[in-house]
Design brief:
Number of strands: 5
Keywords: ATP-binding, Kinase, Nucleotide-binding, Phosphoprotein, Transferase, Two-component regulatory system
Catalytic activity: ATP + protein L-histidine = ADP + protein N-phospho-L-histidine
CATH superfamily of the largest domain: Histidine kinase-like ATPase, C-terminal domain
InterPro entries: HATPase_C_sf, HATPase_dom, Sensor_HK_TwoCompSys, Sig_transdc_His_kin_sub3_dim/P
Low-confidence stretches: 279-284, 373-380
Shape: elongated
EC number: 2.7.13.3
CATH architecture of the largest domain: 2-Layer Sandwich
Organism: Streptomyces lincolnensis
Oligomer: single chain
Number of helices: 12
Radius of gyration: 38 Å
């Protein structure tokens, strides 16, 4: 019983009833236009006083409503009303203007149904409650029986008078049932008529995929630049602390490298965050490349006490920009791993970096001895996973692992056919 009452008079049913009444209100101007047409056609001077002529005016007005539904704001407004009043999930509705012929046809069908059902339910809402109240009160109020109020003669019988309150209550229940049923039907049809078309869903999916790709790239940039900077600064500060009293020149160089590393990383961080902030222009700091920034990267890494031997057998300035940029990040991440795992007891480990052509590919190799335990995540942490992602996006390969006490990272990137944006 409680479920039945909730179905007819619960919050959702009441909101859908309001939605139908709003549809009836929207239908009123079209009905008035219909009356202007029906009056001269039928020769009637009192269309409002005839129920059949009112229905005819309603029938004439609905096609006019379908035509005006082609207004661009119709679908957004109707979708918003359906979301809040009919309880339809937001992702099942399209809130943009209908742009294709099929979408406009569905919008016109929905608007016609909304106004049609709404006009009927709104009319019943205005007429049925007063009639039901009269029937319920009729046996109790003699003045109502004496005034007649246009009631049928059958109510003169005692049995009919006794049944009048029952009929009145049933009329109210029937009204609530009609409103609940019409509201449920509209809520069920709304996704099909106001929802996104397959091409809209495809466009939305492509937009989400593009957004995720951008965010993943930004996440890689943040991890590589900030992660390397923190590793380098940590090692530089540790090395400077150990030789603070015995080698002041080294301490000065390490502090200068820390200052330069943090300043450069803050610029990169600001550039990346500028892209993430809605409405902000991207940062002005250029993306680092092999040609412009490799020497500085090696210098800052050596300033922390790590012995780095680098062999570059290719002209960095001749590489495509995107290849030079991604190769720089790969070398940077390789050196970050070396900073974590190649430091000996004195903090001054050795790393070998080789960059050169090999069978139409740019081959990047970073090797360092593993003096302590193997990396905690031999399957690859975020950095190695980021390297693999960069290589895959450029059509290359990446391999990393420990062999006989040496950690080796080898990445091969095609030197031709690299995309110009990523």
């Amino acid at each position: 019983m409680r479920g039945f009452v909730r179905l007819l008079f619960g919050r959702r049913a009441r909101l859908r009833w309001v939605h139908l009444v709003l549809g009836g209100a929207l239908a009123t101007p079209y009905v008035l236009v219909g009356e202007v047409v029906i009056g001269p056609v039928t020769g009637s001077t009192n269309v409002f006083g005839s129920f059949p002529l009112q229905l005819a005016s309603f029938a004439v007005g609905l096609p006019l409503a379908a035509l005006t539904s082609l207004f661009p704001l119709t679908r957004p407004l109707e979708a918003a009303a359906v979301r809040w009043l009919c309880g339809v999930a937001e992702e099942r509705l399209a809130f943009g203007p209908a742009r294709t012929r099929a979408a406009r046809a569905r919008t016109a069908a929905w608007f016609t149904l909304h106004l049609g059902f709404g006009g009927i339910v709104a009319g019943m809402t205005l007429a049925v409650p007063p009639f039901a109240v009269v029937l319920i009160a009729l046996p109790l109020v003699a003045a109502l029986r004496d005034s007649r109020l246009g009631l049928p003669d059958v109510l003169d019988h005692t049995w009919a008078l006794a049944l009048a309150p029952v009929v009145g209550v049933l009329s109210l229940l029937a009204l609530a049932g009609c409103a609940a049923g019409a509201g449920a039907l509209l809520a069920r049809w709304a996704p099909a008529l106001l929802g996104p078309a397959p091409e809209d869903r495809l466009a939305a999916a492509e937009a989400r995929a593009a957004d995720l790709a951008v965010r993943n790239r930004l996440a890689r940039e943040l991890h590589d630049s900030v992660g390397h900077a923190l590793s380098a600064v940590t090692l530089q500060a540790s090395a400077a602390r150990r030789v603070l009293d015995s080698d002041p020149d080294f301490v000065r160089a390490a502090l200068a490298a820390i200052e330069d590393t943090t300043r450069r990383t803050v610029g990169e961080l600001d550039a990346v965050l500028g892209v993430l902030r809605d409405g902000d222009a991207p940062g002005t700091a250029p993306a680092p490349t092999l040609d412009a920034d490799l020497d500085g990267l090696l210098r800052h890494t050596r300033a922390g006490g790590l012995r780095v031997t680098a062999t570059v057998a290719v002209e960095p300035g001749a590489l495509p920009p995107v290849l030079s940029r991604e190769a720089y990040r790969i070398v940077q991440e390789g050196l970050s791993n070396a900073l974590k795992h190649a430091g000996g007891p004195d903090g001054r480990g050795a790393v070998t970096v080789r960059i050169g052509p090999a069978d139409g590919h740019l081959e990047i190799t970073v090797e360092n001895p593993v003096t302590g335990a193997a990396p905690a995540r031999p399957g690859g942490g975020h950095g190695l996973r980021g390297i693999a992602d960069r290589a895959r996006l450029l059509g290359g390969t990446a391999e990393a692992g420990a062999e006989t006490g040496v950690w080796r990272l080898c990445v091969r990137l095609p030197m031709s056919g690299s995309p110009e944006g990523s």
